[in-house]
Amino acid sequence: MIVSMSIRVAIVEDHEPTRNLWSSLIGKAGGFEFTRAFGDAESAIAALPALAPDVVLVDINLPGASGIECVRRLKPQMTGTQFMMITVYEDVDHVFEALASGATGYLLKSASPEEMLDAIREVQAGGSPMAGNIARKVVQSFYSKEAAPSNEPALTAREREVLELLARGDLYKEIADTMGITVTTVASHIRNIYEKLHVCSRAQAVARFIKLPR
Length: 214
What we know:
The chain is an alpha/beta fold and about 210 residues long. The protein folds into 2 domains: about 5-140, 3-Layer(aba) Sandwich (Rossmann fold); about 145-210, Winged helix-like DNA-binding domain superfamily/Winged helix DNA-binding domain (Arc Repressor Mutant, subunit A), CATH 1.10.10.10. The chain has helices at about 15-30, 40-50, 65-75, 90-100, 115-125, 130-140, 155-170, 170-180, 185-195, 200-210; strands at about 5-10, 30-40, 55-60, 80-85, 105-110. The protein has a 5-stranded parallel sheet, sandwiched between helices. The longest helix has 15 residues, at about 185-195. It is globular.
């Protein structure tokens, strides 16, 4: 029996022409399977857990509950699904709020079709795709935030280095190669980071990292 390795993708987008464009793009692209599109967060929240797609593209600005609220409510039920925000917003606050909600990637609606497909592949492979100009703003903000309260958890220098590479979107193997350590050691550092920050995902760890003293 041949098992399909296609990436199953769902969409949450209220603008019908955009929704149809994304649906058509994914449905026609090799290696992808379009599952279903939703025009609002409420219908997506009701139906997506049963569909269990691999990746969900979510617009931030939805009628009723926002895309960020949609992800925040779905992620605990769909731990194996990756959520990627597709939006017009470039400001860091929206990025951090999306990451804290459980989103793994953040792409602008101005992205080309190939950029979108590449981002879906990347997020499914364990990466955290982010538009280049947004990623630069995120990195810059690491060094412009005011110092956090003294009761914030203390990370070691190596843990900070691992976390910054995670924030950049690097995979475990890429982090290991950059730091000259094994993938097992990277995983150990990440377990310690999650424990110290009281988080359970890369996105939540990155969101907390922004608040840590430099």
